[in-house]
Amino acid sequence: MRPRGRPPLFRLRSAGERAVYVDPLDARGQPLGPSPATARLLAAWARALEPPPAGVEAVLRGYATLYLELDPRQASEAELFRRLDRLLAEAGAAGDGGQAPRFVELPVLYGGEAGPDLEAVARETGRTPEEVVRLHSSRTYHALALGFSPGFAYLGELPAELEVDRLPRPRERVPAGSVAIAGRQTAVYPSATPGGWRLIGRCPLPLLLPGEEPPVRIRLGDRVRFRPVDAGEFRRLEAEARAPRPAPAAGGEAGAEAAVEVVRPGFLTSVQDLGRPAWRGYGFVEAGALDRAALMAANALVGNEPGAAGLEMTVAGPVLRFLRPLAIALAGADLGAELDGLRLEPGRAVQVRPGQLLRFRGRRRGARAYLALEGGIDLPAPGGSRSTDLVAGVGGLGGRPLGAGDRLRTGGAGSRRPLAPEEVARLLPPLPEPGRPLAVRVTLGPDDDLFAPGALEALAGLAWRLSPASNRTGMRLEGGRLDFLPEAQGALAGRSLSEPVAAGAVQVPPGGEPILLLADRPTIGGYARIATAIEADLDRLAQLAPGDLLRMLPVSPEAARAADRRRRAEMEALRGREAG
Predict the structure, then answer these.
(1) How far apart are CA 144 and CA 448, in angstroms?
(2) Which of 171, 389, 485, 560 has the highest CB neighbour number within 10 Å of its CB?
(3) DSSP type of residue 52
(4) pLDDT tens per residue, range 193-208
């Protein structure tokens, strides 16, 4: 219990049945804003939660909050509060432990093609371009948060003299290495992405280091300085950074050991396992199979470890040629699989011979099928995962979807007793019925108080249609609009601080059309979230295709936790037993 008279250290905010935000408070009980001091406190708190205590599965840091993911089987929110109160009080009193900060120096070529907005920023701030460069490069910045895209570090604080707004219309593509400013922050874009910050220069050094551990140049808590360089030094540093590096040992490159060859890749086929949560703290997406139960089921049928890497095939499957004898199994969507022209039903294992062709004639039901290969797909596992991160280009086969001519090697993950088809069928949720909306349970919040009552009615009352613009990042939903309260506009303006977001979060941009976030969501986001799909229903969402309908059914957090406990028991059963 908290000592009598001591003000609360933090407040808890729930997001769904599993996620909790821990906001540090000041002596008056008000949330602390982002600052180097807040960052140091959060760093001390995060260290106090390493390894995570019982009931906590993951810890991420935002600007001014800690984000925890919980195991509902082990901790109620009241129990969690009591544990955190003791741990965080001790950590806050101990401070940062005297740890020396890490300094990072980044060379920057300012202006010209490298910084196309420098002149405009100078005019807007009433200074010369040289003064803008001097002000920007004269300060040491703190890495306050990582997110938006892998390795993207929000650095603060920019001198007040350089404070400018974002562009009214974001660029569709900002070159990697661009040095940018917006508000009181600066950053370097690690990869080419859309972006609305003002570009004033470019850094020749890569910010993403996927072959290293950690995989990013800037980490939370680092001190960062920018050093102006001329064009000659920029080109020299850029050439050094582009020097060839040893290629990752992609499994299946060697034909003699390969088990499968890709004849045609299908619409979107990628290597996936159960994801890469270890790198979320660096801004990488979680990745992994969108329908985790289906991947585990396919693995269970051939005796693989539950998290063995397989193929995720979306809507239109590939054509694959087998190169050696092995057992395979399909689970999830029915995409019309045939083996040498004979129908191959999902949910059972078969032995294949060298030269046999697996092809898919057309989608019958569901959207994503999973193919398990006996022994699992053998590839390097950056960050502990073989999953393809299509955003950062990491994992799988060079971080990309499969292409014609790719070969895959297998082995190392087949130590289980295969489950019988009827055992697996009993544990898998049913696929969506064609033409009927899929009912998905949601818990309201954490920002539902910002929406008009009509928005909450629309959320639960409409049949939402999945837009063709949907992808592994999020499901864009059409068919209605969720309006904010007029008085919420001020609160939204003040909510400029992004924070970690949960899988299943239903975020609402200013246009009012919701987006339901999936495994490739950014680690942090800034849009208001009206609701969160419950964990137990996320796998079912993966089986919706563009044009399909869904309805959102609000349930209580208690009901969501109970459903999560049942789902975890089913997933545990899919793990099977060690082979004798």
Answers:
(1) 27
(2) 389
(3) P
(4) 888 899 999 999 999 9
